[in-house]
Amino acid sequence: MIARVWALALNTFREAVRDRVLYLLLVVGLAAVGFSRFLGEISVGDELHVIVNTGLTAVSLLGVMISVFVGTGLIYKELDKRTVYTILSKPVRRGEFILGKYLGLVLTALVCMALLSAGFLVYYRVLAGEAPMPRTATPPSGGAVFWHQLHGGRITGALLAALCFSMVEVAVIIAVAVMFSSASTPILSAVLTSVVFAAGRLSHWIPDFMDYLGRIRTGGLASQFFLQVLYYLTPNLSMFDLRDPAVNAVGLPPDLSLRILYAAGYAAVMLLAATLIFRRRRF
Amino acid sequence: MNAPAIKAVGLRVVYRPGILQRSRVGLVGLDLEVAENEVFGYVGANGAGKTTTIKSLVGLLQPDGGEAWILGRPAAEASARAELGYAPENPCFYEYLTARETLDFYARLFGLDRLTRRKRAGELLERVGLAGAADRRVRQFSKGMVQRLGLAQALVNDPRVLILDEPMTGLDPVGRHDVRGLILDLKARGRTIFFSSHILSDVEALCDRAAILHEGRMVSCGRLAELLSGRVLAVELVLAGVGAELEKELAARARRSRREGAELYLWAADEAAADELVRRAVSGGAAVRTLSRTRESLEDHFLRVQGQAGAGGSGGERP
Q: What are A144-197's pLDDT values in tens digits?
């Protein structure tokens, strides 16, 4: 089973990296990282915070874009181009096919996000904090200049964790995209995945909103029920947003491993749903 | 006793295109059995259910009723496809892969190791005549080359059972000749080959047994020698030295006649009528050049049974 899933994943990765859209997204991401310095300069006294925030957002958005643009057409394209015929007539289970496609795209997204993260970290460490050399009696040596330039932003564990959790979030969104892709057209899948992403980013506000509705005595049982269902169905993506600890050095939350488990569980449910839908399909 | 290479009992497929659209019957209780080391031809008009049968056998389509087995294992199980090769009618591949990479990918799905994969890909590309294009992207392939690659991928696991859907489609005469050779070679190596085709001469030349499908039902199945057993369609008679008077008389007695230069061609309905014509021709001073029986070809058989099935009103049911 592992060999088959790996073969499918590797092939999906190979297919995705030949897609020019990916490089365009990567260039846009790098441009956003470069632009962060300009944003930092116009914000008074908060330069590094703005750069970290913008960099983390760029990495996260790159992953989301890959999920939406590539992920939503992942299964549909196989059906449309009928490449699925020669694959599913081999000893490949439909669940293995879904898992292989999913892992291939996760691998693609992780590689792209890792590249952008590396670019961002180098930029942040080397250039972002560049400041005039302090005046000294003798001209500074080359080594001193280099050391000074390395006194940009400090790469903390929280910053690395924030980058890693962006990738965890993207793994969840790709699972959602694959689920929609197994059931509908790429355009509809892209719309639905984007809606789930937006709802997932906002879902942590739902309990507060329900409290508020209760306090002001508006909203009937139906709206309460709808909000409750929405809360449990959409992934709570705010769990993977560690920008606050990374930017403000407030310390990482203690339940990181639980959050990873939650991501794995949500992705597994999405992939199971995709498999059940795909198993009913006739080719 | 070995399980049959392919077996289907009561296969039933109904296509339901949409809520408001009428459902269409793909297969109506199809029974089928193909023994090991047989070459089996599957014949039918467009929409008769050939591809539907094949898709049910290779796991691409879950039938609404009945069951199918490949080498004794249920066709719906992935393990049944471990010793199965399948080439679809118009195969499609990842266009960014080369022919060699394509075969390597399919070989990986069977869990073959790197060395075996490399060796197998080289051998198969040679065998289907694509050795010269091994490292070219599939995007640059012609239709015939894609069809050849389709055959190669079906053989990547050296299958015991091979199912080919219209394998001659898109091939030039050389390609068709090569595929015929390949099928006979596989048969000689003990493999079972099940193939659908519109080209009845290929079926007649290659198959041990054949089945004819009409509107989702099997209307004829058996060994070719039995299906076409000695049924004489006409007796052809070629005469020389026939005068105008005699020609008129013979033409009136024959089913059909045609003059070609000095020779008169006559077709009699059966052997008794031919005897009668010969006696009259000889007594009238004509010479008999040839006398031969025209037996039923697979094409004649196909048209006859299809016509009978159509007349019998065996059209697909409308649930």
A: 666 555 556 677 888 899 999 999 999 999 999 999 998 888 899 999 999 999
Q: Name the residue in chain B with its Cα closest to that of A16.
A: B96
Delimit the domains of chain A by residue range.
2-279
Within chain B, which residue ranges are assigned CATH 3.30.70? 232-295
CATH architecture of B232-295: 2-Layer Sandwich (3.30)
Cβ of residue B17 closer than 8 Å to a chain A Cβ: no
Whether residue A134 has pLDDT greater than 50: yes
Q: Sort out which chain B residues have CB atoms less than 8 A from A93's CB and list them.
A: 78
Q: How far from chain centre, in Å, is Cα A116?
A: 12
CA distance A19 to chain B (A): 10
Q: How far apart are CA A211 and CA A215, in angstroms?
A: 6
C-beta separation of B277 from B236 below 8 A: no
Q: Does B265 touch chain A (CB under 8 A)?
A: no
Bridge partners (DSSP) listed for residue B85? B162
Q: pLDDT tens across B62-78, in order?
A: 999 999 999 999 998 99
3-state secondary structure B143-183: HHHHHHHHHHHHCCCCCCEEEEECCCCCCCHHHHHHHHHHH
Q: Are A55 and A124 in contact (CB under 8 A)?
A: yes
The closest alpha carbon to B184, from B1, B39, B9, B41, belongs to B39
Task: Report the C-alpha gap between B270 and B294 in whole angstroms.
Answer: 10
Could you identify the residue written with the tokens 């390597």?
B104
Q: Do A87 and B109 count as a contact with CB atoms less than 8 A apart?
A: yes
CATH class assigned to B1-83+197-230+297-319: alpha beta
Place of tokens 């996000």: A113
pTM of the model: 0.82
Domain(s) of CATH 3.40.50.300: residues in chain B? 1-83+197-230+297-319
> Which among A18, A86, A282 has CB closest to B106?
A86
